[in-house]
Amino acid sequence: MPPEQHRTPVRSERRTQEQRRTATRAALLAAAAELVVEAGVRAVTLARVGERAGYSRGIATHHFGSKQALLDALAKSSQSGFVAGVGDLPPGLDRLVFLIEGYIRELGRDGVAGRAFLLLWAEAATATELSAGFRERDAAFRADLREDVAAGIANGEIPGDTDPQSVAVAVLGQLRGIGMQRLLDPDAVDTQHLSSAVAGQWRRALSAGTSRTG
Question: Do 77 and 113 contact (CB within 8 A), yes or no?
């Protein structure tokens, strides 16, 4: 049999192994998110995550190595693509408003991963093993917000005396704060209404004065 006929099954097997690995990792992260929401960060152990996902007690250690690495991966995965479509828009005021509205709307879905992220974020204020990773994620979020404000200033949508860093800090604080309130008292936070109301407030605040000075 020619050598090339032996190679196709090997490639298929490798793809299957990678798919199994990806599925296992996703199941472990989902199990970790459920445990964080149900019992808190301190109740999460690698063994419990493996059992909750339906695998052996040692599978989470094999995939992540440590609890900190697992929680870092959970935080990253739970916020990846949180607001669908934002990456398709060019930087500027429209993208910023789209992000604000979409973020608050997603908070209203009460997804386990999103709730787990907020609990991890709150825990990071006192848990040193989490703080560095969340500082980096918040810094990256603020950088994206600053980029939108700076682009809005450059194209005349936002007044030139606006401080992008101040806006970034305020927007991030507001979004996280709404999320925490939603966790504590869901009935008091109408995300459907807030999503458009808060987005509209930021659009008006950031575009104020451009018609007179532009």
Answer: yes
CA 189, CA 179: separation in Å to the nearest integer?
9
How far is Cα 25 from Cα 59, in angstroms, rounded to an integer?
9
The domain containing residue 154 runs over which residues? 81-213
Give, as one character, the DSSP assignment of residue 88. Answer: G
pLDDT for 36 equals: 93
Cβ count near 94 (within 10 Å): 15
Cα 130 to its chain centre, rounded Å, is 15
Low-confidence ranges of the chain (pLDDT < 50): 1-7, 10, 212-214
State how far the alpha carbon of 114 is from the alpha carbons of 81, 162, 180, 198, in Å.
11, 31, 11, 20
Q: How many CB atoms are closer than 10 A to CB 43?
A: 10
Of the candidates 57, 77, 97, which is a domain's last residue? 77
